[in-house]
C-alpha cells in the first residue's frame, strides 16, 4: 500500500507589489538565494530555479485519496500540525487557526513539489515523516517574510536502517524536557533510534515498579533525579510520534555500583585477603538470586519499553573483584571455567540483545542474532571485519563518541567516517546495520548537552542516511550544514556555531 | 576612611523542633556539611564549626555608624538588594518585602561573622562588594531549607589588581543579555575588568554616533546585530555596579576588514602587480585621512567608555598588502623606513594604551606606560622576562585562551599557571599587574558561551585573586570548585559540570 501526502500551496502569482512597496523604505537585495540544502542529503534531489509562493493562510497538508492512511492516523495527524508550526512559526503563536487549516486526506518514498501542490509518497508512515522533514527544509523566506519553495523532485531512503543517538542519564541526570528536546532535534536530522543509557555506576534514576528501592537508594535524589513510569512513557510516545525507537540500556554485570544500593546481595563483595573489604564489584554471577532479580527487572523493562531490543551492556567488566571472592572462585572450579573469568562473564551474558563489543571480544558463544556495538576507537575497522566475518550484525559507535570534544570543526572527523570501509565481502558489509552517536555523561548535563550535541551529531546523521559517494567532501557540505544549523536555531535547538558568522534567527530571541 | 557593612542575623536559638517533625516523614541525615568553600579562596580564612541560624525575615544589611558611605551610596544600596536575593532566593520571587527588609546604615577589608551579627570592613566600596560576595558564599541551607552561617573571620585582598575577561562580539554577535549575565558571573568570581573586543574583521557591531555607517554597513545586521549607545551604557553601568571596569578594544591597524565597509579609503588597497586587486589590507597608515578618522572615532570611544584605558590591539598585522601597494612603498622611502614594515606599524601605533604583545615584539619605541598583553602561548614566560626587564607593565592572557576547549577537566591547566614564575627580579615580578581570560568568538555565540566560560574561567579567577602558596593543589581545590559551580547554577548561571555528579539546584528549574 502507499501513503500519499498532498500539500496544497496557493499560488499567488507574481509578488512584485510588496517588493516594490518595500523598496521605498529600505534598499535590500530583492534576490532570494535558492535554498538547495536538505540535511541529511537526499539520495536524489533535483531542484529548479522556479519558485512558488506559499501562503500560510491557504496552506494545508491532506491525505491523498488513494492513501492507505487517512485522518485518524495519529502519527501523521500530529506531524501535519507540527510541521505547519515549523514551516510557519509566525502563524501559530497563540492561534487555534491551525486545526481548521489542514484537513487530513491522503497519504502515499518520493516528494514532488510543483506549482500549487506538492505530493509526498511513502510506503510507511515513518517514511512520510522523513518526507515532511525534507519538505519543511525546502521552504524559505525572503527578506520581506514571504514564503517560497522551489520546484523540486526528491527520491529518498536511508542508507542504514539503524541511526542512533545515545544519552547517558546516570553520570548526570538529564531533566525530561532535555530528553524530549533531543528527540525533536533527532527527528530533524532523521535519526531513528534513541539509545537510552539510563542507569550506570553513579546513579539509578529509573523508577522501577518491581524494585522501587533501586531509585529510592540509587538515584542522586529519590524525587528530583528520577524517571517515573509516566516520564518514561512520555519519552517513548514523544519518540514514536517522530519515528524514533527507544532502546533502553541496563548495563551489567559491570557498571552496576548504583544498583547495589537498593538491591542487597546483588553485587559481588570484594575481598582483601580472607575478609570482605567493604567494597563491591560487578553483579555476582554465582548465585541464583542474581538471575531471579535480573529476570524480574528485565521482564518489567521489556514491558515498559515496547521496542524489541534491550541493550544489556556487558562492557568493561573488571575481574579483580570476582577473583578476590572465594565463593566466586569455588563456583569457577565447579563450572570448569578454570581461571578464565571471561567464561564466567559469558555464562552471565548469554542473551539475545544488543551488547557492547567486549562480549564478542572475550566470549566463545554468542547467539547469531545478537547485535554487536563497537565502541573502542583505535581498532574499529579490524573489529568490523572480524565481527561481520562471524556473521554478526554490527553497529558502529566508536568514531562517533562526540562527548570527546576538541577545539574547532571537529564535526569533520565524524563526517569522514566510512562505516563500510573495511576488508570483507559484500555480504559482510551488509551486516553493518548502522551506527550510533554517543554523548556520554562524564562532563555533560542539561547545561551543555544541546550545544555539544548539535550540530556536531548532524555529521554522523548524514553519513548514516545519505549516499557516501555524494557526501565525501566536507567542504561542500559545510554551507549546507551552516544553513541547517541556523534552521535548528530557528526551531529552538541550542545548536552551537560551526564558524564565524551569524544567523537571521539567532538563539534566544535575538 | 572606612566602609563598614553590618549584617544583622537573627539568632533563632535551637532548631530541633522542625527537625524532629520532619523525621516522622523521611529519614535523611540531619547533619549539615560545613561549607568552608569560598571561591576564589580568601587570603585568610578562619572558620569554626559553630553555626548561626539566619532568618530571612530578620536579616538586614546596614551601613555602620562610622562608615564613610551611607544610604544613597548607589553601588552598595543596590548590592545589598542583590545579595539579599542571592542569599535568600525563595524570599524574593514576586515580593516587594525586600526593600523594607534591609535598611542602609553602615559601611567599613575584613569580614567577621559571629553570633547575631557580621561586620564587613573595607577601604573602598569595591572591596565591600567583594566582601558581600564572600559573605553570600558562606551561607548554606540544610535539607529542611533553614539557612546557616558558621562563625568565620576573613581578611582578604586580591593578589593582582587586574583580573580580566575578554568577550569577542565581532566573530559572533552576543546579545546584550548574554553580556550582562557574563558580568554577573564575573562578579561572583571577583573578576574586575571586562575587556570588550567589540569589533574585528567579521563585523562591526558598535553603533558609532560619529560614523553610523561603520555598523550600518559593517555589522552582521544593522538593527538586530548592533550595540546601540544605550546598550553600551547599560553594559558599563551593569559592570560598574558590580565593581567591574569596561575596557573596549578597537583593534587596528589589522583586524579591520569590517571597518572598511562603512569607511571608504580607510583600508589599504592591495595590489596585484600594478593594479588594485579589489581586496583590502590593514588600515592605510600613509594618509592623513586615516589619522583624522581614528582621532574622531577614538575621541568618541573615550567619551562613551569612561575607563582610562582603551585597548588598541595592534596584533597580527599582515605586511603583504602594505608591501604590494605603491603608495605605501613611496611613503616608506620618504620616511626612511627602508623595507622594515614593523617601523611603519610602529609609526601608526604610537599611543598610550594597552596593546597586544606584537607591538612590543616588533617595535622600537613604546611609551613606558603602555601596558602590554601577552597572547602567544608557547613562549609566555620568556616574554614576561623581556617585557618586565624593559620596565613595562604586563597582562598575562596566553595560557588563559579558554575558547581552546579540550575533553575533560581542562580547568586544571588554567589553574596550574604561575604568572610570576619567570626569571626576573622582584621589581620585574611586580610589573605583572594581572591577567585575562579570553573567550574568542570563532566557535562561540550565545548558544554555548556560558557553559564554555563557567566554571572554566573560575580557575584563572582564583589564580589572579588568591595566595598561590595556598592554592597550588588542584585536587584540593576540586571539591570547593564543585560547590561553587553548584552555587553558580543556583544563581542562574549555565555553568557546565566538572565531573560525574549532581547539584541540589540543577540548571533550568530541575
TrEMBL record, chains A, B:
One term of GO molecular function: beta-N-acetylhexosaminidase activity
SUPFAM superfamilies, alphabetized: (Trans)glycosidases, beta-N-acetylhexosaminidase-like domain
Gene Ontology cellular component terms for the protein in this record: lysosome; membrane
GO annotation, biological process: carbohydrate metabolic process; ganglioside catabolic process; glycosaminoglycan metabolic process
EC number: 3.2.1.52
Alphabetical UniProt keywords: Disulfide bond, Glycoprotein, Glycosidase, Hydrolase, Signal, Zymogen
Signal peptide (from-to): 1-37
Active-site residues, as the UniProt record annotates them: 316 (proton donor)
Enzyme class (EC, first level): hydrolase
Cystine bridges: 73-104, 270-321, 486-503
Keyword Manganese recorded: no
Catalytic activity, reaction form: N-acetyl-beta-D-6-sulfogalactosaminyl-(1->4)-alpha-L-iduronyl-(1->3)-N-acetyl-D-6-sulfogalactosamine + H2O = alpha-L-iduronyl-(1->3)-N-acetyl-D-6-sulfogalactosamine + N-acetyl-D-6-sulfogalactosamine; beta-D-GalNAc-(1->4)-alpha-L-IdoA-(1->3)-beta-D-GalNAc-4-sulfate-(1->4)-alpha-L-IdoA-(1->3)-D-GalNAc-4-sulfate + H2O = alpha-L-IdoA-(1->3)-beta-D-GalNAc-4-sulfate-(1->4)-alpha-L-IdoA-(1->3)-D-GalNAc-4-sulfate + N-acetyl-D-galactosamine; a ganglioside GM2 + H2O = a ganglioside GM3 + N-acetyl-beta-D-galactosamine; N-acetyl-beta-D-galactosaminyl-(1->4)-beta-D-3-sulfogalactosyl-(1->4)-beta-D-glucosyl-(1<->1')-ceramide + H2O = a beta-D-3-sulfogalactosyl-(1->4)-beta-D-glucosyl-(1<->1')-ceramide + N-acetyl-beta-D-galactosamine
Transmembrane segments: none
Location of the Glycoside hydrolase family 20 catalytic domain: 160-467
Entry function: Hydrolyzes the non-reducing end N-acetyl-D-hexosamine and/or sulfated N-acetyl-D-hexosamine of glycoconjugates, such as the oligosaccharide moieties from proteins and neutral glycolipids, or from certain mucopolysaccharides. The isozyme S is as active as the isozyme A on the anionic bis-sulfated glycans, the chondroitin-6-sulfate trisaccharide (C6S-3), and the dermatan sulfate pentasaccharide, and the sulfated glycosphingolipid SM2. The isozyme B does not hydrolyze each of these substrates, however hydrolyzes efficiently neutral oligosaccharide.
Family recorded in the similarity comment: Belongs to the glycosyl hydrolase 20 family.
Subunit structure: There are 3 beta-hexosaminidase isozymes: isozyme A (hexosaminidase A) is a heterodimer composed of one subunit alpha and one subunit beta (chain A and B); isozyme B (hexosaminidase B) is a homodimer of two beta subunits (two chains A and B); isozyme S (hexosaminidase S) is a homodimer of two alpha subunits. The composition of the dimer (isozyme A versus isozyme S) has a significant effect on the substrate specificity of the alpha subunit active site.
Protein name (Swiss-Prot/TrEMBL): Beta-hexosaminidase
Organismal lineage: Eukaryota, Metazoa, Chordata, Craniata, Vertebrata
Amino acid at each position: 500500500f502507499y501513503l500519499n501526502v498532498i500539500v496544497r500551496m496557493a499560488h499567488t502569482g507574481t509578488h512584485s507589489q510588496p517588493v516594490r512597496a518595500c523598496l521605498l523604505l529600505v534598499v535590500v537585495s530583492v534576490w532570494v538565494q535558492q535554498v538547495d540544502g536538505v540535511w541529511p542529503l537526499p539520495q536524489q534531489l533535483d531542484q529548479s530555479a522556479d519558485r512558488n509562493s506559499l501562503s500560510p493562510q491557504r496552506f494545508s497538508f491532506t491525505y491523498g485519496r488513494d492513501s492507505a492512511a487517512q485522518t485518524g492516523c495519529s502519527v501523521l495527524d500530529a506531524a501535519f500540525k507540527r510541521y505547519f508550526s515549523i514551516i510557519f512559526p509566525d502563524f501559530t503563536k497563540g492561534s487555534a487557526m491551525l486545526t481548521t487549516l489542514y484537513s487530513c486526506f491522503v497519504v502515499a518514498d518520493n516528494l514532488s513539489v510543483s506549482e500549487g501542490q506538492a505530493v509526498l509518497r511513502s510506503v510507511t508512515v515513518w517514511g512520510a515523516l522523513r518526507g515532511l522533514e525534507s519538505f519543511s527544509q525546502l521552504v524559505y523566506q525572503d527578506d520581506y517574510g514571504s514564503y517560497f519553495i522551489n520546484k523540486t523532485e526528491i527520491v529518498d531512503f536511508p542508507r542504514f536502517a539503524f541511526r542512533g543517538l545515545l544519552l547517558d542519564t546516570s553520570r548526570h541526570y538529564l531533566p525530561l524536557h532535555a530528553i524530549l528536546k533531543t528527540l525533536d532535534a533527532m527527528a530533524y536530522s532523521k535519526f531513528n533510534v534513541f539509545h537510552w543509557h539510563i542507569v550506570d555506576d553513579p546513579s539509578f534514576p529509573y523508577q522501577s515498579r518491581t524494585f522501587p528501592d533501586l531509585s529510592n537508594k540509587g538515584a542522586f535524589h529519590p524525587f528530583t533525579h528520577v524517571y517515573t513510569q509516566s516520564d518514561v512513557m512520555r519519552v517513548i510516545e514523544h519518540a514514536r510520534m517522530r519515528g524514533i525507537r527507544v532502546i533502553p540500556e541496563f548495563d551489567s554485570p559491570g557498571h552496576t555500583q548504583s544498583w547495589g544500593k537498593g538491591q542487597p546481595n546483588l553485587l559481588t563483595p570484594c575481598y582483601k585477603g580472607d575478609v570482605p573489604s567493604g567494597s563491591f564489584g560487578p553483579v555476582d554471577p554465582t548465585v541464583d538470586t542474581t538471575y531471579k532479580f535480573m529476570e524480574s527487572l528485565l521482564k518489567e523493562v521489556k514491558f515498559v519499553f515496547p521496542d524489541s531490543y534491550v541493550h544489556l551492556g556487558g562492557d568493561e567488566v573488571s575481574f579483580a573483584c570476582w577473583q578476590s571472592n572465594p565463593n566466586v572462585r569455588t563456583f569457577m572450579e565447579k563450572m570448569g571455567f578454570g581461571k578464565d573469568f571471561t567464561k564466567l562473564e559469558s555464562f552471565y551474558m548469554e542473551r539475545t540483545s544488543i551488547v557492547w563489543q567486549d562480549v564478542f571480544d572475550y566470549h566463545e558463544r554468542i547467539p547469531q542474532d545478537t547485535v554487536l556495538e563497537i565502541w573502542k576507537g583505535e581498532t574499529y575497522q579490524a573489529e568490523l571485519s572480524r565481527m561481520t566475518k562471524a556473521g554478526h550484525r554490527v553497529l558502529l559507535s566508536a568514531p562517533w563518541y562526540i562527548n570527546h570534544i576538541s577545539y574547532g570543526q571537529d564535526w569533520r572527523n565524524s563526517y569522514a567516517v566510512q562505516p563500510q570501509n573495511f576488508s570483507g565481502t559484500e555480504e559482510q558489509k551488509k551486516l553493518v546495520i548502522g551506527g550510533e552517536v554517543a554523548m556520554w555523561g562524564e562532563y555533560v548535563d542539561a547545561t551543555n548537552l544541546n550545544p555539544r550535541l548539535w550540530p556536531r551529531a548532524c555529521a554522523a546523521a548524514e553519513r548514516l542516511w545519505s549516499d557516501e559517494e555524494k557526501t565525501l567532501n566536507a567542504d561542500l557540505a559545510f554551507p549546507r550544514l551552516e544553513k541547517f544549523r541556523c534552521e535548528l536555531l530557528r526551531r529552538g535547538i541550542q545548536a552551537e556555531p560551526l564558524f564565524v558568522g551569524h544567523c537571521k534567527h539567532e538563539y534566544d530571541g535575538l
